[in-house]
């Protein structure tokens, strides 16, 4: 699967809390139709699936993403990502250490790492990360232990490493313009897409707002 900086423009993170009777595949496909450029499969602990169900879900979402030519990674679950032949995995500071993840994944898979400081960013780069997730840049209810990252820190991280950076945490169409000139490659969102009644429309609108804020020369 092709992966580059442009893949990270609109990074959609799944949350089955918002399904409302639909399947996760349906919601992800709506986001893909709307222009989501990267998909992360995330299963919260309080809604955890057993191994076999999670594997089948990963295989199904992986096939869907490949049909759209969009990279697909799992959140935290390194072994499952390998078993499902996902395009990669995203890990946090409390998960498996990035260097160990890279060893398990090999050179060809995508490795994303969450960081909140320049020091963490530099270390993640040294340990083999392909991109960084930085946040929370705004207040968010999606992650209880999220710590706010200032605009200045976000920008400093972007300037400190030669890796694409995705901002995450509380981002919406209303505040994405505040991330202008930060240096990020894109935004990662959950509720700004999946909590909306019209997921495809919300995704298309957010993509447009994201381009306007970050890459106005590419807006179309």
Automatic annotation (TrEMBL):
<dbReference type="GO" id="GO:0009229">
    <property type="term" value="P:thiamine diphosphate biosynthetic process"/>
</dbReference>
<feature type="binding site">
    <location>
        <position position="170"/>
    </location>
    <ligand>
        <name>2-[(2R,5Z)-2-carboxy-4-methylthiazol-5(2H)-ylidene]ethyl phosphate</name>
    </ligand>
</feature>
<dbReference type="InterPro" id="IPR013785">
    <property type="entry name" value="Aldolase_TIM"/>
</dbReference>
<protein>
    <recommendedName>
        <fullName>Thiamine-phosphate synthase</fullName>
        <ecNumber>2.5.1.3</ecNumber>
    </recommendedName>
</protein>
<feature type="binding site">
    <location>
        <position position="143"/>
    </location>
    <ligand>
        <name>4-amino-2-methyl-5-(diphosphooxymethyl)pyrimidine</name>
    </ligand>
</feature>
<keyword id="KW-0460">Magnesium</keyword>
<feature type="binding site">
    <location>
        <position position="76"/>
    </location>
    <ligand>
        <name>Mg(2+)</name>
    </ligand>
</feature>
<keyword id="KW-0479">Metal-binding</keyword>
<comment type="function">
    <text>Condenses 4-methyl-5-(beta-hydroxyethyl)thiazole monophosphate (THZ-P) and 2-methyl-4-amino-5-hydroxymethyl pyrimidine pyrophosphate (HMP-PP) to form thiamine monophosphate (TMP).</text>
</comment>
<comment type="similarity">
    <text>Belongs to the thiamine-phosphate synthase family.</text>
</comment>
<feature type="binding site">
    <location>
        <position position="75"/>
    </location>
    <ligand>
        <name>4-amino-2-methyl-5-(diphosphooxymethyl)pyrimidine</name>
    </ligand>
</feature>
<dbReference type="InterPro" id="IPR034291">
    <property type="entry name" value="TMP_synthase"/>
</dbReference>
<dbReference type="InterPro" id="IPR022998">
    <property type="entry name" value="ThiamineP_synth_TenI"/>
</dbReference>
<comment type="pathway">
    <text>Cofactor biosynthesis; thiamine diphosphate biosynthesis; thiamine phosphate from 4-amino-2-methyl-5-diphosphomethylpyrimidine and 4-methyl-5-(2-phosphoethyl)-thiazole: step 1/1.</text>
</comment>
<dbReference type="Pfam" id="PF02581">
    <property type="entry name" value="TMP-TENI"/>
</dbReference>
<dbReference type="InterPro" id="IPR036206">
    <property type="entry name" value="ThiamineP_synth_sf"/>
</dbReference>
<dbReference type="GO" id="GO:0005737">
    <property type="term" value="C:cytoplasm"/>
</dbReference>
<feature type="binding site">
    <location>
        <begin position="40"/>
        <end position="44"/>
    </location>
    <ligand>
        <name>4-amino-2-methyl-5-(diphosphooxymethyl)pyrimidine</name>
    </ligand>
</feature>
<feature type="binding site">
    <location>
        <position position="95"/>
    </location>
    <ligand>
        <name>Mg(2+)</name>
    </ligand>
</feature>
<keyword id="KW-0784">Thiamine biosynthesis</keyword>
<dbReference type="GO" id="GO:0004789">
    <property type="term" value="F:thiamine-phosphate diphosphorylase activity"/>
</dbReference>
<feature type="binding site">
    <location>
        <position position="114"/>
    </location>
    <ligand>
        <name>4-amino-2-methyl-5-(diphosphooxymethyl)pyrimidine</name>
    </ligand>
</feature>
<dbReference type="GO" id="GO:0000287">
    <property type="term" value="F:magnesium ion binding"/>
</dbReference>
<dbReference type="GO" id="GO:0009228">
    <property type="term" value="P:thiamine biosynthetic process"/>
</dbReference>
<keyword id="KW-0808">Transferase</keyword>
<feature type="binding site">
    <location>
        <begin position="140"/>
        <end position="142"/>
    </location>
    <ligand>
        <name>2-[(2R,5Z)-2-carboxy-4-methylthiazol-5(2H)-ylidene]ethyl phosphate</name>
    </ligand>
</feature>
<feature type="domain" description="Thiamine phosphate synthase/TenI">
    <location>
        <begin position="10"/>
        <end position="193"/>
    </location>
</feature>
<feature type="binding site">
    <location>
        <begin position="190"/>
        <end position="191"/>
    </location>
    <ligand>
        <name>2-[(2R,5Z)-2-carboxy-4-methylthiazol-5(2H)-ylidene]ethyl phosphate</name>
    </ligand>
</feature>
